[in-house]
Each structure stands twice: as C-alpha cells, then as structure tokens.
Amino acid sequence: MFDILLAGLDSFQSWQVIGGVILGTVIGMVVGVLPGLGPLIGIILMLPVTFHMQPVAGMGMLMSIFVAGSCGGAISAIVLRIPGTPLAAATLLDGYPMARNGRAADAIGLAIASSALAGVLGGVVMILGAPALASVATNFGPPEYFALAITGLLSISVVSNESTIKGLMTGALGVLIAMVGSDPLSNAARFTFGTNALSGGINIVAIIVGLFALSEAAVQILEGGLRKKPEVQSVRVSLGSLWMALRHWKNLLRSSAIGVFFGALPGASGIIASFTAYAIARSRPLKGDAPYGEGAEGGVVATESANNAACGGAMIPTLALAIPGDAATAVLLGALLLLGLVPGPQMFALSGDAVGGIFLAFLVSNIVLFFVGMLMTPLFVRVLRVRKQYLVPVVLLLSIVGVYSVQSRVDDLWVMLVFGMLGFGLRRYGYPLAPIVIGLILGPIAEGSYRRTLLFSDNGPWFILERPIASTILAIDIIVLILTLTPSSLRQRAFTLFRKWRA
Amino acid sequence: MLKTLIKTAAVAALIGPVAGAAFAADDYPSRNIEMMFPWGPGSAFAMAQIITNAMGDELGTNISVVSTPGAAGVKSFNTALEKPADGYTLIDGWVAPLVLQPLAGNTEFTHTDFTPLWSATRVPFAVVVRKDDERFPDYDAFIQYLKDNPGKARYSSGSIGNIPHMVLAKMMQTEGVYARNIPYPQDGDAFKDLRGGLLDFSFNDPITFQSNKDAFKTLVAFTNEKDVAAAYDENTPTLDDLGLDIGLTGLAPSGWNWFLVHKDTPEEIVATLNTAMEAALNRPEVQERLKAAGFLPTMYPPERYEEIVGPIGDQIAAAKDAITWEAEQLAK
Amino acid sequence: MTESATESGQVSRVALGEWLMLAAFIALGIFVYQQINGPLTAQGNASGDPVNNAALFPRLVANLILGLSALQLVQLLRRKVRLSAEFRYKATGDSAWRCLACFGMLLAYLFALPLAGFYPATAAFLLALVVLLKARPIWFAVLVAVLITFVVGYVFEELLRVVLPQGRLGLSF
Predict the structure, then answer these.
(1) Chain B: nearest CA to A4, how far in angstroms?
(2) Could you tell me the superkingdom of the organism this chain comes from (chain C) (predicted)?
(3) Structural domain of residue B207, as residue ranges?
C-alpha cells in the first residue's frame, strides 16, 4: 500500500490537486443537499471541466464529489426531513428526530464525522484489497444476489417500527412501481397502459423527491405556524462530533464493513448497505443512546458510515475489473479512460504515480469532507431558522428544478406531483415511506436475479441450494425472519429450554 | 418590478413567435444547448461529453449531455422530438434506437426523420471466453462444442434483442448452432458472471476486454478490418480471417452513433453545428481520447448518412430474424 | 382528524381513510392480476421460460399484497391501528384549505412551465405561494419571489449548466 501511495505523493502534491479536491467536496455537498440532485449529477456536470485538468487533479475532484455527495444528502434529511439523495433515506429515520429534539447540529456533525471516518476505512480497503475483493465479487452470481436482495428486503420489517404489515405493504408497492416500463429481461411492456411516456419506466428520483419533499411541504403547511420564526440555537464550529462518532466505534466498524461489502458488489449499492447496517445497529443499541426511531445517534452513525464506506467499496470492481456498480462509478470509469488510465488488475500492480495520486486523493477527500462539513454545519443549521412561509416555497422550487434537471423532462414533474399526493396519503395513515425506497432499489435486483437463477438452473429454484454462499445467506435470513415473527416471550422460553437441555 | 416583468412578458408573447424565428438563426447559439443521450451514464456518456465539450468550445456555448435511459433508448429520442426544432436539442443517435427499434416496430420515427450532423464513433463487438476454459481453444472448437451440445451453452449479450444479441445470434444461425442468452440489463454484471464461471461465453467491448485481459480471450471480433480488431489485441481474428460471412458488413455488426437534430431544424443552424462538429472531431486530443477509450472515430460527413445508414438498415432487418430463430430452437 | 388514541395505541373508531387505503391496496393487487391476464397475456409475456415470463414476479408481489391486505383487514376489524405520530394534532380547516390551494398552484405551475418558460412561470408561482402562506407586505413578497427565481435560475443555468424549460410562447430573458 505504502509504495503506491508514496509513488503518488509527488503527483498529489500540487495546488491543482488539492484545490480540485476541496472544490469537489464543496460541489458534492451542494448537490447532495439539494433534493433531486445527487453525486451522479455532480460528477456529470463537472466531468467536462476535468478534460482541461491533469489526470490526478481531475479524478481527485470527481471522486471528492462522489464522496461528499454521498454524505450531503444526510443534511437535508436531518434538517428538512427530505432525503437529498436516495442514499439518505435511512438516515432520515433517526436524523430527523434528533433535529426535532434540538440536536440538529449534533446530528449533522455525527453524519459528517461517520461518513469521513468510514470513507477513510473504505479507501484503505480499496487500496489494500481491491484485486482480492474483486475476485470475491465475481463469485457472487444471480443466486447470491437474490439471497442478498431478500436480506435487504427483510430490513423493511425493522425500519417500519410497529407497523410491520403496513411497511411490508409499502415495500411491495415500491417493488411494483419499479416494474412499470419495459421488463428488463423480456422487453415486454408492463403496467404502461400502452403509453410511450411510461415505457421507459418511472424516474426514481422524481418518485423519491415527490414522496418525501412534497408530502413534507403539505405536512408543514398543515401544522400551521407559517409566520413564526423558529427558535434554533446558533451553533459554533466544533470538532466534538468526531468523539461522538468514535463513541460508537463498534457500530462504525461494523457498518463500514457492511458498506464496503455491498459497495464492492456491482449492482448492489450504498442504499442496501445503509438500510442493512441500520437494521443490524438497531438490534444492538448502545447504552445511554435514545431509542431507535426517536433520535438514536447509532442510527445516524450506522447509515452514514455504511453509505460512505460503500464509495470505496464501489471503486473496487470499477478499478480492478472495469465493472462499475452504479451510474456514478460508471461515469468515474469513463473519466478514468479519458484520462488515459486503463483499469484492471495491472493498474494496482504497476503502482504508477498517477494511480497512487488518485488513491491518495480519495483518502484525502474524506478528510477534507470532515473539515468542510464542520465549517458548513452552522450554515445548514441556520436553514432551520427560516420562516416556513419562505422555506416551504424555496424547498418546493429546489425540488422541482432538481428533478427537472436530471432528465430534462416536464413529465417527471408530474410524476413527482402524483407521488407527492400518494406520499401524503400514506403518511397520513401511518404507512411508512422508507420501505418504498428499499422496494424500488431491491425489487429489480430480486426479480432479475431470481429469473436469471432459474435460467442457469436445471431444476428450478433448488439451484440455489447448490450454491454454498447463497444458501448460507438464505438460511440466515430464514432464522432472522423466524426470530422477528415469534413473540419475545416464546423466544425466551425456547432459550431457557435450550439452556436446560445443554445443562 | 413585477409590472415590468409582466409588460416584458406580454410584449414578448405577442412578438415572440414571429421575432423568435427570425432572430433564431442569426445569433445562434445564444444559450446553452443540450444533447439527449439514450443510455444510462457511463463510458459512452463520457465520450459524448468529449465531443460536445469541444463542439461547445467551437460554438462559444455550453452543451450539456442529458442521460434519459429507458425503452431501449427510444425514450430519449422521444424526449428530444418533443422539444422545439431550434437547434438547442441534439440527439446522440446510437444505432439501437435509431435503426433497430424502428425496424422492430417500437417507434413512430425512422432514421429518415432526423437531420444528420457528423458521425461520431463505433465500438466493435467480439466474442470472448475465459482464457483457462479448455473447451474453447479457438473459434472452430467453440462452434464444434455448440454443435455437440445444442442449446446447452449459456451466454449473454447484455439485454435481449440488442445489437450484440442480433450479431451473436446471426453468427450462430450461420453456423447452424444455438445457445441460451441470459439477459443482464447491466452489461458489467454479465462480464462478472463470465469471469466467475457461470456463463460460457459473452459479447465484449474493447475496454472491458483490456481491463480483463488476465481472464478473457477473444474468439472473433465482428469486423472485416484488421486494424479495428486490433482494438482488442493483435491475436483477435476478424470475420475475414475466419472466412466467415454473417451477412453483416462494415458498421452493421458494431455499435455506432451519429449525432442528429430534429428534421425541421433551420438549415443555417444545421450548417453552424456541422462546422463546429467537424472542427471538434478533427482536434487531435479528441481523436486521441476517443481511441484510448475504445471508441473509434468514424468521421463520416453528413452527406454520407443515407448512403451508409440505409444499407445497414437492410442488413439489420435481415439479421434480426436470427433472434426469433434462436428462440424457436430453444423452445423445441 | 377525528380519531383519538387510547393509552394502548388502539383507537376507538377506525378512520374512513384507513379503510380507503386498504381498499386501494386491494385494488392494486387486483389491478396487477388484471394486467397479467390482459395486456401481458396478449403480448405473450405471461408464461413461458423465465426470460419471456414477465408475469412471474408481479404475480408473486400481487399475492403478497393481497395476503398482507387480509392481515391488515383483521387489524382494522380488531381496531388495532396506531395513529401516525406526526398527525396527533388538530389541523385547522384554514391550514387544510391552504395546503390544498398550494397543490392547486403546483398543478397550475406544471401546466404553465412548458408554455411560459422557467422565469415567468416560476416568479408567478413563487409569488402566489408566499402570498398564500401569509407573507406580507405584498411588495416584500414580490421582491422575494423575483429574487429567488433569479438566484435559482442563475445557479442551475450558469453554474450547473442545466437547460431550463424555455417556453413555447417565445419568451426569453
């Protein structure tokens, strides 16, 4: 590791590189915070600028956008209860209650500190273990992906608090919504009513912004107090959140490991990682922390460390095999090619100075994220002091323009409106929204990998049992499912019986 | 301020439609231009940005590339066609939505409904297998294996019914063999499962091959030109090397794109765009970057659009039946 | 907001909306079946091998939704529903009307956007919205609306280089 980084030190030490990383971090924060935009849009917008920069500076800037953009969404989730990016949908669960309890600055600080720490961990894993981890990823075929998708879907029962039935219903709704359009396997039109407008599917960003942002606007107006100036204590820049995050070190390490793992599997993403990490963290609460769902620090630490560790993870198959896991890394791969670097195992072996410089830039971007984030936190908290009568219209407008700019389609705004009304109706009657996001992301993975499993198999779904990794994951899922479904009294009795039997 | 705004708006609304058309060509381009891109963002997206960035330089404006994936690329074409034909919306015309989808009856447009600018790039496809797969030392052994095990082998062309699927199915039909195509909406997942040993063979593009050279080897590249096949490596045989005629020649068996605008775009604006695109494509750094990423510049001028795309359409119309043929064989 | 929760989280009367939501989910399940037996069967994609059978998974999900709906029905009959925590307050009729009006304006804005273009449509939309949300005096509301429109327009057009809707009436600024 060190020889690569040392080789890169020369090409890293230039003002253009450091400036690129800082600029990228700020841009990443901004696109992350704005609803609708996300790291992908930030990278796309800045890619042409990098054509005129030296390779390490250009890649450094783009990767900083990736890193900071993956974290920025948490801030709007905490402050406005609107996930700035789909990645932050899980952060909302405890981040917003924290802010409601008057701990907005702590929540933001915690999100940024966990992101930065986990980002560095993810980066170290990427540099040390990319070729090895990439070859592990190639052992994950459709049966394994199906098993993992089921694992992710199980987290629905955890994130929907007491209303598990309603949560599973909205989760299934998410899976169905993702099916609208051409079936990715057969190209058959599904649920399109024969229209062109629906044949390409429904834009997921429009759905999520509609569900969360529009319904939140409605809730805010209904609550009244439009002209009241909210009383929020102003906060000063402090580094204390780093210690606050480190208090959750077990959670941080575990969630980072989950993040790197899911990140390294092409197609799985930070979203599954953050929901899974949240579900696991929730089952092991830290003493003295608030209950989960009501502003637990652990909830923010788990989701934010998972989705930022996933950044490093996602770079692994991208750099080692030229197989990007999602759209953002696909564009990063394109950028790498344009800068004249061909990904592949040889990239790590060569340890050229450009490669080392890029790795170094990735690590440093996480550290820069921490400092830039800390400096900007007071600014974000100030947003809470804006009167609703101005805040609601501005957030609405930003959501609209953000959604429009993703695909340049007015149709998407109609989608947003429809889902806004749907989101409000669901919230009104206690149907949780987070499972819809899980369903939207995992539905297509579960469906595609299940049908592909059947295609590889000579004996239907039983093919999964021939695959040790897949069957192990599914077995664990079944145990977890049984444990969640059985009442705790019964579980207790079974446990005592088991102990007696052992004695 | 509002009054002025309303006044301006009212005046503009009255004279706008008349004045707009007259002024349009003179001061073109007076604002940002956008280009609709039919796939999800990735390498091809970055290549589009390389060209449009240089074009924007020439025109003195900014061209943003907007990815509108869906419906095999057709969604992006429809989005572009809904916008005014004022030269502020360009289309990255990849072959699948431009030629293949109209032939499949999935569109209301054909390739003649656009005004061409310059052609952009091509990506030659190849058949790859694992290097250590002893069943497939070369192309002939590969075909023999498929003959001995009809319908047993599994491969992927990415999505079902795309250009690589058509090319591979046509090749197998020509040889009288067939196999099972496993669809992967993300090509990368297919390459991963080829590496992992689940798939027997797969299509490939030059850059994925370069990055997986330690594990993959090519059996044939779908081109007649030796220097195009060299985008993989020197040992990659062309169709001619194998004496193979699959009824697809020239650009037809590869992925390619041609920049387009709406048919009703004013002539002067098309001329301005063409001058800019020609200059952009001729920049050495643009050429260099496209080639380094495995996207070979084709450099066909607008005048040759009909002469080149027309015959490709005929070849594709004939070849796409191979996909139906493959499905029939598998159903037997 | 008619229902009230008892200590145990059970409600004395299940709100009409709960029944409507459940009915909507059941209708969704039936709709999926209708789509499978209608358009998908007509396309020939409701059966066959796993590539061709686009109905395989929707059928599973529809069954899941219908099964969960049955469970939810039992919950409602036993009056075991919880009030959503964020709605445990009484919204005034005034706020409800205001909220509805906002959605109406959003609707009007979406119609106006492709016709009038970003700047005029957005300024008018924002002005209407802030005035509706009780921003006074009016001149200040106008100032805010116009200012925000131009700032957002500048950020997206110049810094983020997005092509905003131009409008078909030939308005341009």
Answers:
(1) 19
(2) Bacteria
(3) 126-252+319-331
Mutate to test the interface with C, among B3, B4, B5, B157 (most CBs of C within 10 A): B5
Chain B: partners with 3+ C-beta pairs within 8 Å: A, C
Q: Are B1 and C169 a contacting pair at CB < 8 A?
A: no
Residues B95 and B207 grouped into a single domain = no
Q: Does C9 reside within a domain? A: no
Give the span between the Cα atoms of A60 and A360, in whole angstroms.
Answer: 9
In three-state form (DSSP H/G/I as H, E/B as E, the rest C), the secondary structure along A342-389 is CCCHHHHHHCCHHHHHHHHHHHHHHHHHHHHHHHHHHHHHHHCCCCHH
Q: Is C84 on the interface with A (CB under 8 A)?
A: yes
Task: Please name the residues between 278 and 307 in chain B that touch chain A, using a CB distance below 8 Å.
Answer: 289, 292-294
Tell me the C-alpha to C-alpha distance, in Å, between residue A369 and each of A112, A119, A374, B103, C39.
7, 9, 8, 50, 51
Phi-psi region of B68 (alpha: psi -120 to 50; beta: other; left: phi over 0): beta
**Of residues A394, A408, A421, nearest to C163 (C-beta):** A408
Going by the DSSP 8-state scheme, the letter that residue B91 receives in this structure is E
Contact between A314 and A43 (Cβ < 8 Å): no
The CA distance from B74 to the nearest CA of chain A, in Å, is 8
> Which of B2, B20, B34 lies closest to C170 in CB terms?
B20
User: pLDDT band at residue B180, thresholds of 50, 70 and 90?
Assistant: very high
The position carrying tokens 């841009």 is A27
Helices (H), B157-281: 163-175, 187-195, 206-211, 226-229, 267-281
For chain A, which ranges sit under pLDDT 70?
A: 1-2, 161-162, 348-352, 484-489, 491, 503
Q: What is the ipTM of this complex?
A: 0.90
Could you read off the pLDDT of A184-227 as tens digits, one per residue? 898 888 998 888 778 888 988 899 999 999 999 999 898 888 88
Q: Do B181 and C172 touch (CB under 8 A)?
A: no
Which of C56, C65, C130 has the CB atom closest to A390's CB atom?
C130
**H helical segments located in A384-410:** 388-407
Of C87, C112, C133, the last residue of a domain is C87
Q: pLDDT for C97-145, tens place per residue? A: 999 999 999 999 999 998 999 999 999 999 999 999 988 899 999 999 9
Rounded to whole angstroms, the Cα distance separating C162 from B35 reads: 11
Residue B1 has pLDDT above 50, yes or no: no
Length of chain C: 173
Question: What confidence category does residue B110 fall into, taking pLDDT thresholds of 50, 70 and 90?
Answer: very high
Among C87, C102, C118, give the residue marking a domain's end.
C87
Residue A392 to residue C133, Cβ atoms within 8 A: yes
Q: Cβ-count burial of C10 within 10 angstroms (0-12 exposed, 13-18 middle, 19+ buried)?
A: middle
CB atoms within 10 A of CB A296: 24
Assess whether B194 and B100 both reside in one domain: no
Classify strands B296-297 and A181-182 as parallel, antiparallel or unpaired.
unpaired
A451 CB near a chain C CB, below 8 Å?
yes
Closest CB to A176 among C61, C86, C165 = C61
